[in-house]
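Cross-check.
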Amino acid sequence: MRVEHVVVTVGLALLAPSASAQLSTGSTFIITGEQDTVAVERFTRTSTALIGDLRLVQQPQSLHVHYTVSFRPDGSPTRVEIIDDAPNFFTGTVVFDAKSMMAVQAEIGALNDRVRMSPANTQPAIGTSMALMEQLVRATHPAIGDSARIGVMNIRNGNTSAMTITRTSTDSVSIVCDGCMRMGVREEIRVALGKSGDIVGGTNPSLHWTITRR
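Predicted model, tokenized:
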């Protein structure tokens, strides 16, 4: 699995209010499996973007994924820029509607093979990215006892799958996804939420993951 991060350090007192409102402090998710580190993800969220660095700790090498998700005012994604140093995984731009596709094609050319269109009504995901999972929990915000079922696209390999997010209590959520990591692999993550709706920790019982936030 994998992860890394971006830390934003700015003198907020020197910024205009409109600019400072766009900024968010960085956080880090660490996934461990039994005694080994699986992934480390450092990320920064603003009102218009989610920027993350995911380091997937594997033998014989550690793999790195960098992504920037851009959002509309309603919180839905418009595009994702992704750089993935793993062989045979995608590096380029994923767009989520025709308008975004036209904008990207105007920037880099209509025939560029580094642009993918995600299927309609899908959201970006990576099986080991808890920052993207947190974004999906925020976007769906089911009531206690209710579930939301959404389509997601793994922005690393292009796989599409279905995700079910269930609010099991005031401060906990279950996330089940068939294919978020690999096709045919069912992933279930149980997370605890803080008062602001952030994921503060969790587990993946079948993979023996422990998820912590710093």
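The chain has three helices and 15 strands. Confidence is low (pLDDT under 50) at residues 1-21. Passed to J.P. for a second look.
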